[in-house]
């Protein structure tokens, strides 16, 4: 029903806050142009309807994940603690890689 470009344009709007620093300005401008072109192509009303439905479904999924995490924390605290330790280890590893990349960047100058 919808093309890949249309879904890409919709997803861009949801991911924009996360990706602000990952992509150059040209990609951001291209995604905005694609979104505007698709909005013109299918009409504003249909675009807004689909955009809102996608946003609503993503919000519902996010809320259900949060709710299930809260239930797990209450029902099985050991499992929740293991999960928190895994995420903390992941964050530490990411921070270590980031610091190493910054140090390597400094050495390259």
Automatic annotation (TrEMBL):
It holds the Pfam family UTP20_C. The keyword Signal applies. The keyword Ribosomal protein does not apply. GO terms for cellular component: 90S preribosome; small-subunit processome. Residues 1-20 form the signal peptide. Keywords: Signal. Residues 26-99 form the U3 small nucleolar RNA-associated protein 20 C-terminal domain. It comes from the Eukaryota. Transmembrane segments: none annotated. This is U3 small nucleolar RNA-associated protein 20 C-terminal domain-containing protein. It comes from Eleusine coracana subsp. coracana.
């Amino acid at each position: 029903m919808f093309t890949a470009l249309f879904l890409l344009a919709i997803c861009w709007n949801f991911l924009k806050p996360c990706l602000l620093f990952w992509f150059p300005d040209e990609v951001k401008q291209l995604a905005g142009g694609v979104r505007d072109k698709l909005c013109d192509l299918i009409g504003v009303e249909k675009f807004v309807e689909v955009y809102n439905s996608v946003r609503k479904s993503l919000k519902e999924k996010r809320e259900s994940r949060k709710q299930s995490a809260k239930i797990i924390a209450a029902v099985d605290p050991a499992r929740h603690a293991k999960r928190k330790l895994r995420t903390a280890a992941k964050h530490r590893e990411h921070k270590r890689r980031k610091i190493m990349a910054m140090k390597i960047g400094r050495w390259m100058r």
